[in-house]
Amino acid sequence: MNKIKTWARNLKKYVYVLYFAYKDPRVPWYAKVFTACVVAYAFSPIDFIPDFIPVLGYLDDIIIVPLGIKLALKMIPNAVIKDCEEKAEELMVKGKPKNWLVGTLIIIFWGIILIWGSMAIFQYIK
Predict the structure, then answer these.
(1) Neighbour-count burial for 49-62, b at 16+ CB within 10 Å, e otherwise
(2) CA dist., res. 112 & res. 98, Å (int)
(3) What pLDDT was estimated at residue 17?
(4) Where do the structural domains in the chain lie, given as residue ranges?
(5) What is the chain's pLDDT, residue by residue, as a tens digit (126 residues)?
(6) Global pTM?
(7) 78-81-84 Cα angle (round to 5)
(8) What pLDDT score does 4 carry?
(9) For residue 96, what is the DSSP state?
(10) CA-to-CA distance for 23 and 91, rounded, in angstroms?
(11) In this predicted structure, what is the pLDDT of residue 117?
(12) What is the per-residue burial (b if ≥16 Cβ within 10 Å, else e) of 68-79?
């Protein structure tokens, strides 16, 4: 059980590392794009495979996110990773900051998608 907790903590740490690396000007643009996608997917409550589907639901959390993190880390220079690891450690000790504006924008975005999808389904049913 301790191995799983350590693995999950390291996974969380590296999501924060990627978050800080995305903002670093030393990271190439293609790595920033990929890193932003990995971080957004890791923090998003929406998954490709919903968690309520037995076994497959947690597959993305166990395989897709760690694989994305690993690929993103390979694209980022080692010096940047080292700097960002220090920032991530500090953030994990202090606790993550809350950005209510970004949270609100994400909720609005998914709300619009949900409404649009519902309207499309109702148009199709008619």
Answers:
(1) eeeeeeeeeeebee
(2) 23
(3) 92
(4) 2-95, 97-126
(5) 777 777 777 888 898 999 999 899 999 999 999 998 888 888 776 666 666 677 777 777 788 888 999 999 999 999 999 999 998 888 878 766 666 776 787 788 888 988 988 888 888 776
(6) 0.66
(7) 155
(8) 73
(9) P
(10) 15
(11) 87
(12) bbeebbeebeee
Q: Which residue has the tokens 């990773």?
A: 81
CA distance 2 to 13: 16
The candidate with the shortest Cα–Cα distance to 76, out of 8, 27, 15, is 27
DSSP state of 58: G
**DSSP annotation of 50:** -
Q: How far apart are CA 73 and CA 68, in angstroms?
A: 9
Half-sphere exposure of 42 (CA within 13 A, CB side): 26
CB-CB contact of 55 with 79 (8 Å): no
CB atoms within 10 A of CB 83: 16
pLDDT of residue 11: 83
Other beta carbons within 10 Å of 12: 14
pLDDT at 97: 60
> Can you say whether the dihedral through the CA atoms of 57, 58, 59, 65 is positive or negative?
positive
Residue type, 76: I
